Amino acid sequence: MRSGYAKTREEKVKWADWESNRKWLARCAKGFGRNSIGGLRGKIYVVTDASNDDLLEPHRGTLRFGATCNEPLWIIFARDMVIKLQQELMINSYKTIDARGTNLHISNGVGLTIQFVQHVIIHNLHIHDIQPSSSSNIRDSEDHWGIRTRSDGDGVSIFGSSNVWVDHLSMSNCADGLIDAVSGSTAITISNCHLTRHNDVILLGASESFAEDAKMQVTLAYNHFGRGLVQRMPRCRWGFFHVVNNDYTHWIMYAIGHSQHPTIISQGNRFLGPPNRAAKEVIK
Q: Where does the Pectate lyase domain lie (predicted)?
């Protein structure tokens, strides 16, 4: 946890006893996703079962059960777990997935999807080796399930959603993007993440023709773009993007990409270019 979260004496006390003050986290987002409250107003829900992943009737105690509930929930984990998702995990509105105190891996299966919802916080997960999925029936809330088409293999996919905070994730080696935010998504912060070993890292706005993404506002702060990354850190279209205080440790093609006249404020970043003189371009 960044010491920068705690400014006042009260905040330092809260962070020192974070297990008793888990929901204090919801006050700590900065940037465009700062208003996200996640499951602040809900009960604590404990994931106890990492093995069962029923797509239509998820069992109580599983991550899928908590994520698809209609009520606000603050989701935590009983112990270290490796969760292999059969299909996309559809995350409903007003949810926090908080893995502090555990070693929690979402891996060797399908990733997380935040679609047409609001107020979601994802914190302290390892997400890696994510694969595409075939078409399937999947539940996305207590009162709705439907056919999902094939997923691309993103680690975290944000689609038409707002007030989202993605924080303290360790991510690598997904079939498509590590994090994608598209189709009118806005009010997003991606912070304190460690990203390695990947080609298309972060995509913000997927289409040259989808002008609605002009409203997109995304902050990327305090992330480490580590070894083995190729491009899109991030790749920006249309919107307004604040890329601040990130650490870039080499890349293979370029760091930040843009098209369709986005506004990108790059501030306080450290760029350590690759040894290849032909690939030292920061912005493309």
A: 80-277
Under DSSP, the state recorded for 16 is: H
CATH class held by domain 22-279 = mainly beta
In 3-state terms, what secondary structure has residue 9? helix
The dihedral sign for the CA sequence 54, 47, 118, 122: negative
CA distance 278 to 92: 44
CA pseudo-torsion sign 49, 54, 58, 63: positive
Give CA angle at 114 (11, 208), nearest 5°.
Answer: 115
Percentage of residues in the chain having pLDDT higher than 90:
84
Nearest to 185 by CA among 209, 156, 214, 152: 214
Which member of 139, 232, 235, 237 is catalytic? Answer: 232
Give me the residue label for tokens 């975290």.
Answer: 156
Active site residue 232: yes
pLDDT in tens, 35-58: 999 999 999 999 999 988 899 999
